[in-house]
């Protein structure tokens, strides 16, 4: 090239370590083409993603690919400004020199849109009409927002002049003109795009831009080049082949789906399907987005039935993968263990699909690790403290397997990571993109409070809007909740904007029940349940803890295994300590299990609990064993106790807990047998005040002082124990629906006057929680724009965006000092930092972190710089006096008084 264009004097990527071999920088025009080339392959016209987006926008897939690739070529225009170029000065005399007159106070992505609006739109009117420029701008706002959040254009426009020189603007214009002349398609199709359709599609397009930028920044595939050549030559000879190689080695290529034959092909332990599972095998499915709500008793095989539906939907081409969202880490762990044994049956033998647990525990697909885990790639130089390079941010983000699970073929984790897709959290668009071609399977939906339920409704609506299928599982679900989930899916499908004309659910009494929703159709079908889970459970109220202790002692003397579910961690610890001091109970017969353990210890306790009380446990493991636990055992874990004692809780949770009482058929000593149950009729013991004696507002506090903190609606608690005590027993599944509606329904009995005030306060708080959910949610109809978070204070990192209210938690990693170096607390396993992680109540953490000395805080900051997986986490060093706060048996116990 004889006349080298001015745009070749600007760098786009710089090496973190100048001593690395090869060029010190990558030319900015080349990086722009690298990212666009990734977009080219992501949006191949024959791929479902491109076809789905094109169909929504009434465009041809070929044109959409060509046009969005053109837009991606302009994504980093903000780097042409001298303020950015001065961040890494003097790399080569061929590059522009830094200029002290130019600031760098605004990030380069925002500067890009500012440069376009403030300067380039006017300069390009000879090539693109004003009208076409107005149609083009929203698309460019998407690609300029490639760092995970849309941009506030007003501030960006004001900052351009203070961040650039005139020659920077001239160079940027020259690059844009070159791209226009070579790659811009006819813009006439922009005229036919419906604005509302574009806004809904913009969320996925934003995810494509983020993913393209991340993959296009991978030095393993896009080698740095500082040698000038024509843009077309680089595009054909370097960018496109490198991008194709990057995508081929990543986990985003389509995988063949195995045809569905029968449930026994998926689960070899099933010989006779339950009625619900048989329904899942035979129900008519259309090749379109659908919602299923499966309600059946605990132990009826809902998970396997749901997986049959997942497989059939995938086989029909409606989905390519699966994300399972659970309410807690314990339930996610249990679900992962179940799916890890069967997920391969969804795909052809010739492929290795990826499965990722959203806590990074173990058994992650090695192929997935080697491909999408970009934390192994070389990191570009970080531009500024508030302007992280794409590869650096990718490393930090994907080093956290909670997020990586959304991009794998099969992901399992807490529902929180999916809920962040409808909140103003950075990179939420990537979450939605990851979910776009997956079935969203959410278990234990009854466990969500009003805030989370409102978020889930929005997620269901957004998922339906991008053509996704959703399956919800619950043993017990109030009619009102089911109604809202159905309506959310209908609205997301866009089948009828007028809510009054949407078909509504009708069935209020049948149980078990399946609700199926597709375009303009609702089908509600009652099903039978598994005969072995049809049973009557006696109920007995225990008035105080002394009687509980006596009941436990009697059971232990009879060689029975016992579980006492306490509503707070504080109560669980106190009961555990009291039992530890009892001479009649051997120390090796007592186990404590709650939520505040480092992952490695929590998993060890889970394994031990499953060994002692799981389906395969026998008399030798069960004899006289006592488990003191919190809510961690009430969902998903396949546990079976001879005696179950529970603190009073809402009726739906009581039913859940009862599902762990004599769950499997055993002989009188506790060994699993075939045939009839030989243990005595199961009896659920409930620790509670007498519902017939409500003398004042402190009715429950006298017996369970901490329960009102966890379940503040005293009225629902009173109704729950009243119904149980009046009945003396309940039969499943016959009584399930009536029990639920007797507590949650509009015809439920009036609560005592003494409890009205507390109950009304709780009801008001529930309305506030739901309103908070509404307040925090993105307005998806506004599209990928800064204004979509208008009800909120703005966009932020995901750790600052609450997916749960009340007892907000922070993620803390425990570290220890070994030979002067900080190491993860976990010392075995493949993902030691993840295994060292623990969730702590936010208020408690604020108090605890004040004990960390300035010297340790400095060492912690250094550690975070060295380990990208720790970027967004808190650190607790187990050293000196700080060491006593955590114990592998007791867990996190700061202050000894926390709930």
From TrEMBL:
Q: Which GO terms describe its biological process?
A: defense response to virus
Q: Which domain of life is it from?
A: Bacteria
Q: Which SUPFAM superfamilies match?
A: P-loop containing nucleoside triphosphate hydrolases
Question: In the record, what terms sit under GO molecular function?
Answer: ATP binding; hydrolase activity; metal ion binding; nuclease activity; RNA binding; RNA helicase activity
Helicase ATP-binding domain boundaries: 283-495
Q: Which UniProt keywords apply?
A: Antiviral defense, ATP-binding, Helicase, Hydrolase, Metal-binding, Nuclease, Nucleotide-binding
Asked whether the UniProt record includes Magnesium among its keywords, one would answer no
Q: Which residues form the signal peptide?
A: none
Q: Name all HD Cas3-type domain ranges.
A: 21-215
Q: Which Pfam families match?
A: Cas3-like_C_2 (PF22590), Cas3_HD (PF18019)
Query: Which protein family is named in the record?
Result: In the central section; belongs to the CRISPR-associated helicase Cas3 family. In the N-terminal section; belongs to the CRISPR-associated nuclease Cas3-HD family.
**NCBIfam families the record matches:** cas3_core, cas3_HD
Protein name, please?
Putative helicase
Identify the species of origin: Methylophaga aminisulfidivorans MP
Source taxonomy lineage? Answer: Bacteria, Pseudomonadati, Pseudomonadota, Gammaproteobacteria, Thiotrichales
């Amino acid at each position: 090239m004889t006349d080298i264009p001015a745009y070749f004097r600007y760098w786009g990527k710089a090496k973190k370590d100048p001593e690395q071999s090869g060029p010190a920088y990558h030319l900015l025009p080349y990086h722009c083409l690298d990212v666009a080339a990734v977009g080219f392959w992501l949006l191949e016209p024959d791929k479902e993603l491109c076809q789905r987006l094109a169909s929504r926008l009434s465009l041809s897939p070929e044109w959409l690919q060509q046009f969005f690739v053109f837009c991606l070529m302009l994504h980093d225009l903000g780097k042409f400004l001298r303020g950015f170029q001065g961040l890494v000065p003097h790399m080569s005399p061929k590059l522009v020199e830094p200029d002290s007159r130019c600031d760098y106070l605004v990030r380069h992505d925002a500067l890009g849109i500012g440069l376009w609006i403030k300067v380039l739109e006017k300069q390009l009117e000879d090539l693109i009409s004003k009208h076409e420029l107005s149609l083009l701008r929203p698309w460019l706002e998407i690609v300029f927002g490639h760092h995970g959040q849309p941009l506030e254009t007003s501030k960006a426009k004001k900052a351009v002049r203070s961040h650039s020189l005139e020659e920077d603007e001239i160079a940027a214009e020259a690059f844009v003109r070159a791209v226009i002349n070579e790659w811009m398609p006819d813009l006439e199709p922009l005229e036919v795009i419906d604005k509302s359709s574009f806004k809904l599609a913009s969320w996925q397009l934003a995810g494509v831009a983020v993913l393209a930028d991340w993959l296009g920044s991978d030095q393993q595939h896009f080698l740095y080049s500082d040698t000038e050549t024509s843009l077309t030559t680089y595009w054909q000879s370097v960018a496109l082949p490198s991008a194709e190689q990057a995508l081929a080695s990543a986990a985003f290529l389509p995988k063949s789906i195995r045809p569905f034959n029968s449930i026994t092909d998926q689960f070899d332990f099933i010989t006779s399907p339950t009625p619900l599972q048989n329904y899942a095998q035979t129900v008519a499915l259309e090749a379109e987005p659908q919602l299923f709500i499966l309600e059946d008793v605990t132990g009826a095989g809902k998970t396997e039935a749901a997986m049959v539906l997942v497989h059939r939907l995938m086989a029909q081409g409606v989905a390519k993968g699966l994300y399972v969202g659970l309410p807690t880490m314990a339930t996610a762990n249990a679900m992962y263990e179940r799916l890890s044994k069967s997920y391969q049956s969804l795909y052809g033998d010739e492929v290795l699909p990826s499965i990722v647990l959203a806590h990074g525990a173990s058994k992650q697909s090695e192929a997935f690790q080697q491909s999408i885990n970009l934390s192994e790639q070389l990191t570009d130089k970080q531009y500024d403290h508030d302007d992280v390079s794409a590869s650096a941010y990718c490393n930090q983000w994907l080093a956290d397997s909670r997020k990586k699970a959304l991009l794998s073929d099969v992901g399992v984790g807490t529902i929180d990571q999916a809920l962040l897709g409808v909140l103003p959290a950075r990179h939420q668009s990537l979450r939605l993109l990851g979910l776009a071609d997956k079935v969203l399977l959410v278990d234990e939906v009854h466990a969500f409070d009003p805030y989370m339920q409102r978020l889930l409704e929005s997620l269901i609506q957004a998922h339906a809007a991008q053509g996704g299928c959703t399956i919800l599982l619950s043993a017990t679900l109030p009619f009102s909740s089911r109604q809202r989930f159905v309506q959310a899916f209908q609205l997301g499908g866009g089948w009828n904007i007028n809510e009054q004309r949407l078909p509504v659910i009708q069935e209020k009494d049948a149980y078990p029940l399946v609700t199926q929703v597709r375009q303009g159709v609702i089908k509600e079908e009652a099903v039978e349940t598994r005969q072995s889970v049809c049973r009557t459970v006696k109920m007995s109220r225990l008035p105080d803890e002394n009687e509980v202790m006596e009941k436990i002692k009697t059971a232990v003397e009879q060689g029975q295994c016992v579980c006492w579910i306490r509503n707070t961690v504080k109560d669980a610890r106190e009961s555990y300590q009291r039992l530890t001091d009892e001479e009649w109970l051997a120390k090796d017969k007592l186990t404590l299990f709650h939520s505040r353990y480092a992952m490695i210890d929590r998993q060890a306790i889970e394994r031990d609990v499953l060994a002692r009380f799981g389906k395969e446990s026998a008399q030798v493991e069960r004899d006289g064993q006592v488990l003191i636990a919190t809510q961690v055992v009430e969902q998903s874990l396949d546990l079976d106790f001879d005696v179950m004692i529970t603190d009073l809780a809402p009726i739906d949770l009581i039913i859940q807990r009862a599902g762990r009482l004599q769950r499997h058929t055993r002989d009188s000593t506790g060994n699993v047998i075939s045939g009839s149950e030989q243990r005595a009729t199961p009896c659920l013991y409930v620790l509670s005040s007498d519902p017939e004696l409500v003398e004042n507002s402190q009715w429950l506090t006298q017996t369970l002082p901490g329960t009102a903190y966890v379940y503040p609606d005293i009225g629902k608690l009173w109704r729950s124990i009243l119904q149980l005590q009046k009945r003396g027993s309940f039969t499943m599944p016959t009584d399930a629906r009536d029990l639920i509606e007797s507590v949650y329904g509009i015809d439920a009995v009036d609560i005592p006057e003494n409890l009205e005030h507390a109950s009304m306060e709780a009801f008001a708080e529930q309305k506030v929680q739901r309103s908070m959910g509404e307040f925090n949610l993105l307005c998806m109809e506004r599209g990928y724009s800064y204004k979509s978070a208008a009800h909120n204070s703005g966009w932020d990192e995901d750790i600052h965006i609450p997916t749960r209210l009340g007892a907000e938690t922070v993620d803390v990693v425990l570290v220890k000092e070994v030979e002067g170096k900080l190491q993860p607390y976990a010392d075995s396993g493949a993902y030691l930092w993840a295994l060292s992680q623990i969730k702590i109540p936010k208020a408690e953490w604020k108090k605890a972190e004040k004990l960390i000395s300035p010297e340790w805080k400095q060492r912690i900051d250094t550690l975070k710089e060295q380990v990208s997986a720790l970027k967004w986490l808190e650190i607790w060093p187990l050293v000196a006096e700080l060491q006593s706060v955590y114990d592998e048996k007791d867990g996190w116990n700061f202050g000894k008084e926390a709930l």
